[in-house]
UniProtKB/TrEMBL annotation:
Name the record gives this protein: CsbD-like
Organism whose genome encodes this protein: Paraburkholderia phenazinium
SUPFAM superfamilies to which the protein is assigned, alphabetical: Hypothetical protein YjbJ
A Pfam family reported for this protein in Swiss-Prot or TrEMBL: CsbD
Ranges of residues in domain CsbD-like: 4-56
Compositional bias per record (Basic and acidic residues), positions renumbered to this chain: 42-63
Residue numbers spanned by region Disordered: 24-63
Similarity field: Belongs to the UPF0337 (CsbD) family.
């Protein structure tokens, strides 16, 4: 697991918390912020997954 995967998951968690707080308090801006954070976290984690996959492929194809 690389730092992009970890930070992506952390961003997703922060987003879920913000979304829940926004829903509970009726704060649409905080709810939207949470949605956006979750999306950004998913993208960063996917980027980290890709890096990890590339590293694994390079190890498999090394002489």
């Amino acid at each position: 697991m690389n730092k992009d995967q970890v930070k992506g998951v952390a961003e997703q968690v922060k987003g879920k918390v913000n979304e829940a707080v926004g829903k509970a308090t009726g704060n649409k801006a905080k709810e939207l912020k949470g949605d956006l954070q979750q999306g950004a976290g998913e993208i960063r984690k996917a980027y980290g997954d890709g890096k990890e996959q590339a590293k694994d492929n390079a190890k498999r194809n090394a002489p």
